[in-house]
Amino acid sequence: MNGKPLFFWLGLMGAGFGLGSNLSLAAQNGGALTLQSVLTAPLAQQYGVMGAAADLADAKANQALVDSWYDPTVSVHGHLRAIEPSHAATDPNTRYDNALGISARQRLYDFGRQSLRSEAAKSGVTGAELTVFSVEQQQRLALLKAFFAVLLADQTYTVQNERMAVDFVRLDKAKDRQELGLASEYDLAVLQRAYEEVSFARARADVERRLTRRQLAELLGTPDQIPATLVAPKLAALATQKPPEFESIIKNLLADNPGLQALRAGYRASEQSLKAARDHNAPTIYAEVNGDYYQRELGSRDPLRAGVYIDFPLYDGGVRDASIGKAQAARMRLAAKIAEREAALREAAASTLELIEVYRTAATRRVKALEHYSDLNFTRKQTLYQMEKATDLGDAMAEESAAQLERMRATYALATYWAQLALLQGEPIDRLLTPAPKAPSPPLPTEPKP
Question: What whole-number distance in Å separates Cα of residue 205 and Cα of residue 199?
């Protein structure tokens, strides 16, 4: 065994343990999954978006209900009634007073209350639409994080698998040396402990591969289609992209943040509702047409009536004051939420910009140093192996994979913060992180024919 290079054991363990990992996820969703396909996936069946869409449908239904206030109403009324006629009745032999009629009513004017209620309902729909967009973008951010989590879990598994292969070879060699009396029981125990530690870490990494995939499938709304293969996105350009100034970011997010806009739409609706509550006792003018059939004819009964009426409330028992108080409380609550959201947005923008700068500079320098060391270490170990001064490459390959893992962590963290910054400003995050289609190349100039 000692004559075989580490490449052999890495390949053997990668195949053997990979088959036993119970990661039977291949080909369940018909191919590799890309970041662009995840960020542009339909979200209509996702439970968070469905809840926001239900709120939007409720707001639209409320708007339709409010707007129907001026629609005409038609009703049928009637009664079956037996009577004992009075002595003064014109026809004392009549014993029944049945009637059937139809009425049509049309509201004409309510002195502005309906327009206020309509504006409030319209603002409610606008706020609900903004909330749907905000929830969709938050869901896409969660999908972005879940996508990166799968890629990081795969690379972590690769690192732990290579480290376990190295420790396995060292442990096996120590067993051979112990048989020859060249290694003690203590030396073997030290290597056995190291091997079991990395074996446990590898088992946990293998579990993370499956769990992160299931979480991604749940967020996509396809729990029965677990993605097997993901394509790592190319995001190196983000490290050279400079963020805007803090003042510019604050100006944009206070104007365009969808969650804040939704609260402001709700505040406008509350103001209209408050005005309508103050006009609660305003009169209402309406027209009404009645047609009736009476089995018993009386002088006060008309088969057809039409008229314009006014309804002027004089006393409502405190309903107006209660409506005003409720509307004022709703407006005050929304004003507090707006102030709270603005403060949270300023804090989130500041922290996001700071972290973007950290990952653009310090994290990038750290990763470059790790990659430089791992490259030199691999070259050194490879040279010693070729000169037959070493029997294997040791942990050089594991160091290479670990450096790649740190590169992925730094890049994906930077991409996540850029996505959060876009989300704060109400911008779709898929435009930021997915490549735009290339413009067609202009035709090459041709020389004029002689």
Answer: 10
Task: Provide the angle, in degrees to the nearest 10, between the axes of the packed helices 258-278 and 246-256.
Answer: 40
pLDDT at 177: 78
Residue 306: strand pairing partners? 289
**Predicted pLDDT at 207:** 95
3-state secondary structure of 282: coil
pLDDT of residue 282: 86
H or E element, residue 108: strand 99-109
CATH class of the domain at 6-79+97-433: mainly alpha
How far apart CA 42 and CA 40 sit, in angstroms, is 6
Low-confidence ranges of the chain (pLDDT < 50): 1-29, 436-450
Yes or no: say if 429 and 422 are a contact pair by the CB < 8 Å rule.
Answer: yes
- Tell me how crowded residue 427 is: count the other CB atoms within 10 A of its CB: 17
Cα–Cα dist 241/115, whole Å: 49
| Gap between the Cα atoms of 310 and 30, Å rounded | 69
Q: What burial letters (b/e) apply to 314-343, b meaning 16+ CB within 10 Å?
A: eeeeeebeebbeebeebbeebeebeeebbe
Can you state the angle between helices 113-179 and 6-19, rounded to 10 degrees? 130
Distance CA 397, CA 217 (A): 32
Is residue 242 within 8 A of residue 356, CB to CB? The reply is: no
- Ranges of each domain in the chain: 6-79+97-433
22: left (phi over 0), alpha (psi -120 to 50) or beta: left
Q: In the numeric block, which tokens belong to residue 254?
A: 């206070």
The beta strand positions in 146-298, using DSSP E, are 284-294
pTM over 0.70: yes
Residue 186 is predicted with a pLDDT of: 85
Residue with tokens 């002088």: 299
